[in-house]
Automatic annotation (TrEMBL):
Membrane topology summary: Multi-pass membrane protein
Keywords, sorted A to Z: Cell inner membrane, Cell membrane, Membrane, Transmembrane, Transmembrane helix, Transport
Matching SUPFAM superfamilies: MFS general substrate transporter
Protein name: Major facilitator superfamily MFS_1
Amino acid sequence: MSTSSSTSRQLRWLCACYFFFFSILGTMVPYLGVFFENRGFNPQEIGFLLAILMATRIVAPNVWAKVADRTGMRAELIKMGAGAAALAYLSFFYHGGFVYMALSLALYTFFWNAILAQLEVITLETLGENASRYGQIRSWGSVGYICLVVGAGFAIGQWGTEVLPYIGFSLFIGMLASALPLPANRLVRDTSQVRPPLQWNRAIIWFLLSAMLLQMSAGPFYGFFVLYLKQAGYSESSAGIFVALGAMAEIVMFMFAPRLLGRYGVNTLLIVSIGMTCLRWLLVAFGVDSVLWLGFSQLLHAFTFGLTHAASIQFVHRHFDASHRSQGQALYASLSFGVGGALGTWICGYIWGDGSGAVWSWVFAAGCAFSAMLAVFFIPRDKPGVAAHAA
């Protein structure tokens, strides 16, 4: 088999891995709040449980990244993580109490959250000089997210929230099946040389702070968006359509991201995207009764995640050398989606209260996004054209 055909085959399996990974996200994140509510948990308990989903991203990616960077066993760790997550997810079927559910979430998300950082590194290293094609590969994750966020919404409306574990387990099996064909292209290292320590600098520190604050702002979206729409009179299926609208906008943005990165650079695009995110949360807070404004706010997901993530992945890939790339992606995932997501979800659970503080949770989100935008101004500016072609 030629190198080009082998690379194309690997990229197809990576597309499938992204599809199933974000299909799981599209099933779990929008509907876990409703699922836990129907199992009898109160808003504070729901906020804590959903924070666990984010908090395992603090530990898991960094633990696995150290193994991956030292051994080069990235594909093997994806397969191991997918298999272990599928087995651990079986515990989710049992109707346990608060402590049991917290342990169940911590167990299966520990393995699930360890997959993405390795997937990102393998994808970018497989693309090599064609790293600008990352958005095309990653967009399959958005396709999976759309399919399941809409499909799960209709399934819950038809059969109730207890259908969620069955959908989730099927997707975990799909993730495992997609990961198994990935070749074990272990990166060979010169063991006679001492591995240099990770070099921290001003750009990395301010970038990670901004990423953490941005994901804090997404706390109410991750944990309470569907509940918020239900409170405003929308159905689960309608909520699923609104979430899918955002994912569709994200796919479109991934198509234009390489061109925008090449023309404007990471810093400018992060400032614009995070500013749009601040506007988005204010629209959700005060425009939820308008289908038009709510729909427009979801279109801004193209900036909140699509453009921001594409720029961030390129930033990390450029600022960490080959011996620290797994660690770099893990730091980005753990501090942003992990620390930021967990804090945002947990805090919003308390702001939410009995539902009377729902609007203020989105105002809090807008404040976090504004702070994230300010942090970007302290990142030394990059040169347009570099980010899009970094290998």
